[in-house]
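From the pipeline queue, job 12 of 40. The input is one protein chain; the requested action is below.

Action: predict structure.
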Amino acid sequence: MTDSPTQHCGVIAVVGAPNAGKSTLVNALVGQKVAIVSPKAQTTRARLMGIAIERDAQLILVDTPGIFTPERRLDRAMVAAAWEGAEGADLIALVVDGKGGTGPKVQQVVESLKGRPERKILILNKVDIADKPRLLGHAARLNEMLPFDETYFVSAQTGDGVPELKAALAGAMPESAWHFPEDQVSDATERMIAAEVTREQLYLQLHAELPYASAVETEKYSERPDGSVEIHQQILVARETQRAIVLGKGGTRIKEIGARARAELSRIMGVPVHLYLHVKVNPKWEEDRSLYREIGLDWVE
């Protein structure tokens, strides 16, 4: 990495309502998976940085939790993390589900952006499944509410429009030395990545059955002499009935969750992974300060 005066680098805060496709878009811009994705709203809980390179520019993409009306302490911590991720950004990118439209949740985020000093762009996502005339109508309405510097139409899922968006983001970055090594794609620790991958499998396999109130904590992360990695995690749920759902009949569900998470982690880390999962019932896990630190959130009153 050279400190050439032609280098550009900046922070892009990716914000929006839950399920707009922010994490999928960050992964598409980085060119590999750095954030977990599921059909469940509010999958992203903490601020996560994805790091992308485009020509002479390094893009520091802050994937933030979805912005919504918080009801519980965990909700408040997630929304606080979203707005903290936008503080001091060179650019705020509002991602809107092009199929879902401009409902109250989207309007709430747009209202919150008014008066902020950062440059703002609008990204209409999911254009592959959205009606084109409606898309244009959404863009017009949102720009009436808040004039954006630019509007882009993309599909993070298929990649349609992503190269053009990435080039435009690179062109908007200030002149600056790169903040990270060229081969680094995320700021997440391996412990955090391990917990997130298991949580993703929980959501993908149980999203219709398991309530949102669950968490994954990495208790032990160590490297074995042969280079493989040993990981012990506990899945926290609030009730015994939820524990039974995670375990499945005869332990079949947790075995499948573990198998898929292990395969994904081995692929990400490039080494064999030994993953051990157990489920713990703790009705007050959302009141555990240490867990908030573990999953990358600040404690809020």
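Job complete. Confidence is low (pLDDT under 50) at residues 38-46.
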